[in-house]
Structure formats: C-alpha cells, structure tokens
Amino acid sequence: MHKTNEQLPKALWLWIPLGMFIFQVVGENFLYRDYMDWVVAENGPYETLEFLILLVALTLAVYTLVHMDRSNKPLTGWIVLAALCCIYVAGEEISWGQHFLDWTTPEFWSTINDQNETNLHNTSSWLDQKPRLLLSVGVYVGGLIIPFLLEKKPLLLPERFAVIFPTKQFFICAAICLFVKIADKVGDAVEYYIFGRGAESEEQFLFYFVFLYLLLMKKRLVPAKQ
Questions:
Q1: Chain centroid to CA 202: how far?
Q2: What is the pLDDT of residues 81-102, one digit of tens each?
Q3: Distance of CA 120 to CAs 7, 68, 115, 126, 132, Å?
Q4: Residues near 217 by beta carbon (within 8 Å), at least 6 away in sequence
Q5: Which of the two ends of the chain, N or C, has the fewest CB atoms closer than 10 A to its terminal CB?
C-alpha cells in the first residue's frame, strides 16, 4: 500500500480544533448563558464562522481544479463534487444571502419552508438530515477508520483510492465530531446538555474537517511551484 506523507500544519489540524472545542465546552458551561445563546444563535457568530470555513474550503477546491492534472476523470469528478457540496452547504448556511441582506421570504416559499427562510434544507429531510448524515459518516470513516486501517491493516484498503484517503492528522477533528454527537444523545437521556445546540456545535467541526480535507487534496494534486 502506497503511503502518502503530506503534512498539514500542526496548528490547523491540532491546536485550532482543540481550541475551538475547549472554548465551546468552557463557554457553554461556565460563561454567561445569554452570551453563549447569542454565540450559537441562528445567524450568530458560529453560523457566520461555518459559512467562512466553507468559503475557504470552496476556494481550495476551485484552486485545485484549476491547477491539477484533470486527465484523471474520476479524481477530477471527486473534486468537482466537493466544490458543488461546498457551494450548496455554504449557500444554505446563509439562506443564499438572506441572513446578510435580510430580504423577505416570498409567501409561496414560506408555505413549504418550516423556518420561513429562502433555503432548501428546511423544506425536506432529504435536503437536510440525509446529507448531514452522509457527511457525518464520511467524517467518521475518513477521520477514524481509514487512518487506523492505513496504520494497522493497509492491505484492507484498495490501492487505487490511496490518493483520496485522509491521514491520521484528521483524527482529532473527527473525534471531536463524534464526541459532540454522543454528548448530545446522552443529553437527551439524562436531560443535561454540554452543548446548548449540539447540532450547531457538530456542524462547525464537520465543516472544518472538509476544509482540512480539501487543503490536503490541494497539497496532493497541485504541483509544487518550482
């Protein structure tokens, strides 16, 4: 099995996600409640940060597409798919500009959108929970299972997909995503929540994982400048 040795900056894959996680845990449980309610509120700082993370991820995907060798059609399609997903999720996060420009939702759309916003994910679980579940599974598999197999059982993974496999540097971000998910489920059982809005907290790290992944793809697919 071919092993890739690309290294992402330690600050990006370790210290930033850990810092975000610590701030969130401390803030949710020890800071002034109204402050944290504002931070994680709809259209609040966390949602804006998520949009910016996705915007950077999209920029990386587009840059990679422009500069990579596009003769490998499946690999090119993989990056195109990543770019399209970034566009969709980033647009949905800000309701395609409504959160910034504050326009009125058309009456016909209000009847099918359960939050009276001009987005798609509040109209159907197939445009919200299902894509989110798919991304979550991708993060758990890509950040936890694949790096473990690469280290312990590399022959179980097909060589032809080696170029798209995440590295062990993705473990921290994926583990945080899993912790937030489990904490939210435990909170449902014991009626005590570490995170006031667990879904919003998890999204932040899911999107950060996507950013890290597209940065890795750029390093792998774009030739280094001489």
A1: 9
A2: 999 999 999 999 888 888 777 7
A3: 37, 32, 11, 10, 13
A4: 60, 61, 64, 79, 82, 164
A5: C
